[in-house]
Amino acid sequence: MIQELQDWSDEKLGDLAEMIQGLLESRQQEAEEKNQETREDGTPLGKHGGRGHIELKMIPDSKTGKTYGPYRYLRYWGVTKKGTMGLKSVYLGKFSEKGEE
Q1: What is the rounded average pLDDT of the residues 37-52?
Q2: Contact indicator for 66, 81 with CB cutoff of 8 Å
Q3: What distances in angstroms separate CA 77 from CA 55, 62, 80, 89, 97, one per listed residue?
Q4: pTM of the model
């Protein structure tokens, strides 16, 4: 894999680094959530400052009114096409209860 990566542009490598950082942080966040403190009503206390997380999205079909999903997306902070910092996303596949795609 590294042989392939050496031919990538600096911009593409930077994007990949941001995606990997976001994915690693989302995995750490998932592990921490298992031990997360909760309020009296059982809802988890929030966490701020993370750079990446996995988001489940439902996609509506405006023609039929049906909703499809949920689909897993890695959401991470990176440089957008406009050159500013913002949330970016990468499709990870359809969500299933067993964690399979």
Answers
A1: 56
A2: no
A3: 13, 29, 9, 9, 27
A4: 0.53
